[in-house]
Amino acid sequence: MDLWHELAVAGCLMLVLEGVVPFLYPQRWRALVAQLARIDDRSLRLMGLFSMLIGTGALYLIR
Questions:
Q1: In this structure, are residues 29 and 21 in contact, taking their beta carbons and an 8 Å threshold?
Q2: Distance CA 34, CA 40 (A)
Q3: What are phi and psi of 56, to 5 degrees?
Q4: pLDDT truncated to tens, each residue of the chain (63 aa)?
Q5: Which of 5, 19, 48, 60 has a CA positioned 20 to 30 A from the CA of residue 38?
Q6: Which residues contact 44 (CB under 8 A, 6 or more apart)?
């Protein structure tokens, strides 16, 4: 498989996973989004950084 195919597959899987919670629990998802809107930028950036580091570490372990 080439890189673009793998990126396309990863993007599709991300969309499927991202859609599960709003599909199953729309009210909870709406409340979560409203709660996230109240979090300051620094905290959101730290959460994003930790998420990227965990994802990178998991990829390293899997590969």
A1: yes
A2: 13
A3: -65, -45
A4: 699 999 999 999 999 999 999 999 999 999 999 999 999 999 999 999 999 999 999 989 988
A5: 19
A6: 36
61 burial type by CB count under 10 A (0-12 exposed, 13-18 middle, 19+ buried): exposed
User: CA nearest 21: which of 37, 33, 5, 34?
Assistant: 33
Q: Where are the domains of the chain?
A: 3-62
Contact 51, 59 (CB under 8 A): no
Return the C-alpha torsion angle 11, 18, 48, 27, nearest 10: 160
Which pair of tokens denotes residue 12? 């599709």
